[in-house]
Amino acid sequence: MTASANPALPAEWRDFFALTKPRVMSLVVFTGLCGLLAAPGTIHSVLGFTAVLCIALGAGGAGALNMWWEADIDAQMKRTAKRPLPQGRMKRTDARDFGVALSVASVLLMGIAVNWLAAAVLAGSILYYAVIYTIWLKPRTPQNIVIGGGAGAFPPLIGWVAVTGEITLMPVLLFALIFTWTPPHFWALALFVKSDYAKAGIPMLPVVAGEAATRKQILAYSVVLLVVSLAPWWIGGTGPIYGVAALALSGAFLALAIPVALRRAVEGDAMKPEKRLFSFSVFYLFALFAALVADRLILGQGALS
After folding, report:
1. Residue 304's beta-bridge partner residues?
2. Domains in the chain with CATH codes
3. What is the model's pTM?
């Protein structure tokens, strides 16, 4: 099965919306909003909404460019085969043009309405995901997720810069938090969809290095994640609400990673510990950034004015 270049029917709005990867976008928008709300200083609510909208548009544009480039790969994988391009519901050039339009519009709007440093970081995040990760890293190295994790780590940094107009240690630590979270999150998924990646020729770590090495890496990154998640508290950038939440959530993450690291899956194994860790990892990021905002709003003053 290959992606069709000449679909029989014109694409619907749902197909274009699917190109933006709405599930991924929801996490991107949420962490971007949390970065904005946790930042010191204030921003007018209209400008704050505009900044978050630009983050969403940029993420959607990058997602569309990713699907455009990987249409043939998506057609070979069970979990992505029903996307618009593999199904032949739109032309590949339409997906490309849609992605470029969203990306350019998001950067220009961010620069004109908010500030150009936030726009520059947004542009960097789009290029990181669409070019560095999608085109260069993903098909070439099993460290694609490690290095490529930076692509999803930009939103809280962008939200913070939208308010403050500068890059300081605190937003860099928020970037580092998501950067460190990404490998164990995606490798837990890769363990139970390994055959999909192997079929498509994507050198994910379980395919190239094997499951045992991947499980050890998941545990190692979970330990590092515990340390990185507490760093904003240690430097005084947050209060006890975030600190306690980070300790509890990261401790739970590590506790779930230990059985994944120690066990040896066999053929036909349902991989429940791996799926449990993957599901919790999504909740983890939402809960931790919600605690960040709660800490700021309860113990400090919100950024929106």
Report:
1. 43
2. 13-299 (1.10.600)
3. 0.91
